[in-house]
């Protein structure tokens, strides 16, 4: 398992949960949304990793990857629906099809923002965490 595999699986999970949403940053492209698509926009802002422990017997590194995400929508209802759909998808596939050992999300922070030239949008920031193990010391 690796962070890149988990990132790709998370992208697919969000794509299945929100097929009309624009997804940014999952392929390494810039994650800043220029505009909000009709189905909303989900941006991967960054990935933080930490080591949880090491098994020396078969040299396995146990890690936690934290994916910082932003869901953007034009209405509060749409923002809530996007986050609920992602949460439901996570609850239905806690291992991302085998890409990680456990997937979870931290509660979202909703903040109404105003963009230049627009009436405003709703931005929900949340973190998805994935626990995984790897024999690769640099993954």
The radius of gyration computed from the alpha-carbon positions, rounded to a whole number of angstroms, is 16 Å
Chain oligomer state: single chain
Tally of discrete structural domains: 1
Helical region count? 2
What share of residues are in beta strands? 35-45%
Shape: elongated
CATH topology: STM4215-like
What is the averaged pLDDT score? Answer: 88
Number of DSSP strand runs: 6
Distance between the termini: 9 Å
Secondary structure: helix percent: 10-25%
Characteristic key phrases:
alpha+beta, 2 helices, about 140 residues, elongated, STM4215-like, six-stranded mixed sheet
Describe this protein's structure:
A hairpin with a 4-residue loop joins strand 2 and strand 3 (60-73). Strands 1, 2, 3, 4, 5 and 6 form a six-stranded mixed β-sheet that branches. The chain has helices spanning 3-17, 76-92; strands at residues 22-24, 41-55, 60-73, 102-105, 109-113, 121-134. The chain has one domain (3-134): 2-Layer Sandwich (STM4215-like), CATH 3.30.2000. The chain has 139 residues and is of the alpha+beta class. The chain has two helices and six strands; from the N terminus they run αβββαβββ.
């Amino acid at each position: 398992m690796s962070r890149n595999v988990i990132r790709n699986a998370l992208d697919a999970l969000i794509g299945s949960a929100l097929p009309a949403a624009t997804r940014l940053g999952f392929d390494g492209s810039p994650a800043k949304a220029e505009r909000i698509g009709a189905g909303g926009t989900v941006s991967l802002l960054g990935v933080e990793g930490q080591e949880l422990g090491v098994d020396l017997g078969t040299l396995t590194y146990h890690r936690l990857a934290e994916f910082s995400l932003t869901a953007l929508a034009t209405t509060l209802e749409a923002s809530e629906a996007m986050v609920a759909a992602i949460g439901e998808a996570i609850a239905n596939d806690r291992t991302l099809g085998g890409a990680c050992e456990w997937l979870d999300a931290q509660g979202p922070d909703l903040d109404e923002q105003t963009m230049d030239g627009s009436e405003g949008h709703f931005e929900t920031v949340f973190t998805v965490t994935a626990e995984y193990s790897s024999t690769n010391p640099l993954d």
